[in-house]
Design goal:
9-stranded mixed sheet; 7 helices; 6-stranded antiparallel sheet; about 35% strand; elongated
Length: about 625
């Protein structure tokens, strides 16, 4: 037992000593059947990613296998250990059992600690870029590869190359690496046998996955001159010089848990990178480097086994080459940006004419393209026309516009998303007739999308309903007949995350189409309207009461507004006297009517005074103000 514990500690130590963060594709959000040892079958769905994952029934109850191989309901977790109910998962769940119970071992994810702070993203190419991709096909003593070298070569030269070229509007060109294995220079080496049994890491990505990569690179060395790709001559092959992808014989766990042996697709780096041809490969060097790894087969039933689809490939290359962060929610409290981008659920895109999920990966969202210099995102002014992101006529100038807020790192991006090109991958989720303007709220100060109320990149759902754990809906997009006005008064609104107005308005959004128009305005909108009605007689003697003073406050927004009301008076000598501060709130679209009075202290000098109220938000930012003059006169 002591020896086993020590090995576990060594594994964890090596795991966390790697300098970069492991990124992965999220689990496919589709149901499939699994079978109990007694032959009963039921529907399940995978949840999570390579660090923290679990399986739920189609109704949302978490399940795990017991020691006899039967799937049972999870009553709760103690860390990552499941405490099982006695009932089998193919039967009616026990009364009172909670849905969506998740492992509480999220602390084991080294990414979690970084995403709550300002994680440094991998240094990435910006603007025009040309790179090379190498596939190494790795098989084992007990598991041979299934699909041919030529079939994987076509993914590089056709699918992957085309995706990035189209997604970047011609800025990114990826080509097969030079190698001498089989059909020379098609970018594929393998199958190469690693000489041991498949480690079947499944849902537990660890140093065994790194070792697969190290062994695969060493096996590929006779066929590749890795030194040729060290173009900056620093003795490291970085991922923007050569993207190394290891395709593992067997199954891809993120697609289904039904078949093994498997690995979970991910991007990572090697703690002890191999040195081949005098250069280090797959080291996380100078904030860039590493490898991609995934299983060669996607299968969830006896009838649907197929070669891994393109979505997982381009998602992981987005991490490896372009340093992109995951835009799904890695604490799983929501789906992040859902299906609306390749770095989230869009990696499993499927059009109505596709057979498998991942056949048509969705285009990157506006922020991804802007962040990589693939679009200009000019400042919107007046009426702007936006071409659909996946249209044949789309380019870096006509697809994305920016609406600035006055804060350099917080802004909005606006784009047109239609079922054309790679965006047809949203059809399985949104339906074939979707289309409209996507409005993105970006805060570069955030590291990730784990905070549901303050994300790095967030889609403003036009229907006013948060996406939650779904993958999105067609009414999340803005178009005539759904929602046409995005402003401080709309739901959702254009306020900053602080609650202060951004002064951004996107108005008169047109009908959905391959080109759409919207009016960009920057204007101050009165969130709260304050009116003070003076008393009929505004002359008062010292020691008497001025009143009644009518106060009307109207909330012009569709959300509850919390505020401070500051009461003050200004003397004839221009001195300001505080009369008190009251914290309060006003209902959405609500109105407050109150009467107040002001007793004038005895001995106050005669003259003209001002009575006023200043209203701020809870961040002390001024929202509205009103006042009137009154006269103090001694009889």
């Amino acid at each position: 037992m002591k020896r086993i514990i020590m090995i576990g500690l060594v594994v964890l130590g090596l795991l966390f000593s790697v300098s970069n963060v492991c990124h992965a594709v999220p689990a496919l959000q589709d149901t499939y059947s699994i079978e109990q040892p007694d032959g009963n079958t039921f529907k399940v769905k995978m949840k999570g990613d390579e660090w923290n994952n679990w399986i739920e029934t189609a109704d949302g109850y978490t399940i795990e296998k017991d020691s006899n191989g039967f799937w049972k309901y999870v009553a709760r977790y103690a860390g990552k250990k499941a405490l099982l109910d006695k009932l089998y998962a193919d039967r009616i769940p026990p009364r009172g059992l909670k849905k969506h119970i998740r492992p509480s071992g999220y602390y084991l994810n080294p990414r979690a600690a970084n995403e709550s702070s300002a994680e440094t993203l991998q240094t990435a190419p910006y603007g025009p870029f040309t790179g090379n991709v190498l596939f190494i096909l790795a098989e084992f003593s007990d598991r041979a590869g299934t699909y041919s070298e030529a079939s994987f070569a076509s993914f590089i030269s056709d699918n992957i190359s085309d995706y990035f070229y189209e997604a970047s509007y011609g800025n990114a060109t990826l080509a097969p690496a030079n190698e001498t294995f089989g059909a020379a220079n098609n970018g594929v080496v393998g199958w190469v046998n690693l000489g041991y049994n498949h480690p079947n890491t499944g849902s537990n990505t660890d140093i065994r996955n790194q070792q697969i990569t190290i062994n695969a690179i060493n096996a590929a060395d006779p066929y590749v001159n890795f030194a040729d790709y060290d173009t900056n001559h620093d003795n490291y092959v970085d991922s923007d010089e050569l993207a190394v992808v290891v395709i593992v014989a067997g199954y891809e766990r993120s697609y289904s848990s039904a078949y093994s042996p498997s690995v979970w697709g991910h991007k990572w780096s090697c703690n002890n990178p191999p040195v081949v041809d005098g250069v280090k490969v797959c080291d996380y060097h100078s904030d860039k480097g590493g490898y991609v790894q995934f299983g060669e087969i996607h299968q969830s039933s006896a009838a649907d086994g197929h070669q891994a689809t393109m979505g997982i490939m381009v998602h992981e290359l987005g991490h490896l080459i372009f340093g992109l962060p995951d835009l799904y929610d890695t604490d799983y409290s929501s789906s992040g940006i859902g299906v609306f981008g390749i770095m989230s659920g869009g990696s499993w895109g499927k059009s109505t004419s596709d057979v498998y999920y991942g056949d048509t990966p969705v285009l990157p969202c506006a922020w991804t393209k802007y962040n990589l210099g693939w679009v200009e995102a000019y400042e919107g002014s007046g009426t702007e026309t936006m071409t659909a992101a996946g249209s044949a006529s789309a380019d870096s100038l006509n697809t994305v516009y920016r609406a600035s807020t006055g804060l350099a790192n917080e802004y909005f991006l606006i784009e047109n998303r239609q079922p054309v090109g790679y965006d047809r991958g949203m059809e399985a989720t949104l339906g074939s007739g979707f289309g409209g303007i996507a409005i993105w709220h970006v805060d570069e100060n955030m590291a990730a999308n784990t905070n549901d109320s303050h994300r790095k990149v967030d889609i403003e759902e036009a229907d006013g309903t948060l996406m939650g754990t779904s993958s999105g809906s067609a009414t999340d997009l803005w178009y005539s007949g759904n929602a046409t006005t995005f402003s401080a008064l709309s739901n959702p609104n254009s306020n900053l995350y602080s609650g202060s107005p951004s002064n951004v308005s996107i108005l008169d959004i047109s009908a959905s189409g391959s080109t759409m128009t919207a009016l960009f305005e920057t204007s101050t909108i009165e969130l709260l309207a304050l009116t003070i009605t003076p008393p009929a007689d505004t002359t008062v003697a010292p020691g008497e009461v001025l009143g009644p003073i009518g106060i009307t406050l109207t909330n012009n927004t569709s959300s509850v507004f919390q505020f401070y009301a500051y009461f003050y008076a200004i003397t004839p000598s221009s001195a300001t006297v505080s009369l008190g501060k009251i914290p309060a709130s006003i209902a959405a679209d609500g109105t407050i009517n109150v009467n107040r009075s002001l007793r004038i202290p005895a001995g106050v000098s005669d003259g003209t005074y001002t009575y006023g109220i200043r209203v701020t938000d809870r961040s002390e930012v001024d929202v509205t103000e009103d006042f009137f003059d009154f006269t103090v006169a001694t009889p």
